[in-house]
Amino acid sequence: MSQVTTSGLITLIRGLIDDLLQTDGLNAFTYDSDNSFKLCNEHVVSTSILVYQNASLLPSTEYSYNADTNKVTLTMTGSGYSLTKGDNIIITFDYYERFSDTELTSYIKSSLVEFTKRKYKKTFYMNSNDEVVTLNGENPTTPEGHIIALVTAIKIDPKNIKISTRDFNFSAEENKSPSQQIDDVFTHFTFTLGVIDFLDQEDI
């Protein structure tokens, strides 16, 4: 059985809310005296950052990125690298337009409450590694992961979710609240996949 990970859930959610990776991030600067450069786009993928000094690619050891300030700082710690006033600095990067992974992880965490509210037999929570597990330490099944992703997407963007597969169809409806839409998700999965198992009245 494949493992459902938070990174996998985030990928599903980004597809559902149309927050896909953008690969055209580019900022150009002229160095004067400040060796820190603020990027114009937020939610940057730090591992994608490339820095060019006068059209020459700098090694990654020569700069650092601070996600809190969204700035790239040229440290120039390597032998032979230095900054001169007037240097042209170009920084390229990938980014997301709407949410960071940290923000989506928080949304996933809050969405797990929806299972408890609907008396689902498994109690999901995020462990210290920010992975979704049950009280007995098991990962959710793949169908449960799909429900978690869809419920999270509805909580983020309840009017723009639409899914159509061989086994499952769901479309957000303008006249339904997010809570009603989430109810529909659980109902759809119950009838189409038969994977939803709720507490019996005597178990409550």
Describe this structure in words.
With 204 residues, this protein is of the alpha+beta class. The chain has two domains: 6-18 and 100-203, no CATH class; 22-95, no CATH class. The protein has helices at residues 6-16, 101-111, 113-117, 142-156, 178-192, and strands at 22-30, 36-38, 50-53, 56-57, 63-66, 71-74, 88-95, 124-126, 132-134, 162-164, 169-171. The protein has a four-stranded antiparallel beta sheet, with no helix packed on it. A three-stranded antiparallel beta sheet has the order 2-6-5, with no helix packed on it. The chain is elongated.
Number of helices: 5
Mean pLDDT: 85
Number of domains: 2
Helix share of residues?
25-40%
> What percentage of amino acids are in beta strands?
15-25%
Q: Give the class from helix and strand content and strand pairing.
A: alpha+beta
Largest sheet features: 4 strands, antiparallel
Order of helices and strands: HEEEEEEEHHEEHEEH
Total number of strands: 11
Rg from Cα = 22 Å
Question: In one word, what is the shape?
Answer: elongated
